[in-house]
Amino acid sequence: MKLDLKGRQPPRYIAVEGPIGVGKTTLAKRLATTFNYQTLLEDAGDNPFLEKFYRNRKQAALATQLFFLFQRTEKIQQMRQADIFEPVQVADFLIDKDPLFARVNLEQDEFQLYERVYQQMTIDAPRPDLVIYLQASTDVLLSRIEQRGMDYEQGLERAYLERLNEVYSEFFLYYDGAPLLIVNASEIDLAHGDRDYHHLVDYLLDIRSGRHYFNPTFFG
């Protein structure tokens, strides 16, 4: 399948979401190349608390979460200042989902503190023109995490990833903040394969509102 964008206008601000290891950044970068967009990417490696978090989640959870919150909101503000009226961006995060990790990882008193900070910092976050939610089974997530070989991720427990999958599914079950495309990403090779990727791009170019589902197995 040849990818032809002639005469078709992609969403101007796309946010790609999903649990750890599902391929958010890979898809965001590829979409940015296809559409000649800028990227708005999380810099997990810049978080000085992340390795401590993976060694002892309870002890380092609040510091890790707040650092990511500050980082994400700073990136969004930079985007707004660069082109406040018509952002042309692909992001590998949706700020609305930030509390998901907080609910999973923080104690009640820590979560209350986090919520107060979150409410103050995210009030002006722009609305994406399309949110892409990548779904995959826990087995697939574990396999992809192992393949990408980041040392501090290798100790992630199945139960933790299963819990993240649950909260993501619940969040997007009720999400109506932007047009939503839910993608079965378990069998998609976003890093190397063209066929499924081209089908996905062709599909998303027609989305203007509502909730949509993309399953590559439907395309034979």
UniProtKB/TrEMBL annotation:
Ranges of residues in domain Deoxynucleoside kinase: 14-202
Keyword Kinase: yes
Residues annotated as the enzyme's active site: 92
Cellular component annotations (GO), alphabetically ordered: cytoplasm
Sequence positions that bind ATP: 18-26, 144-148
Alphabetized UniProt keyword annotations: ATP-binding, Kinase, Nucleotide-binding, Transferase
Record keyword Manganese present: no
A GO term, aspect molecular function: deoxynucleoside kinase activity
Protein name, per record: Deoxynucleoside kinase
Species name: Parahaliea maris
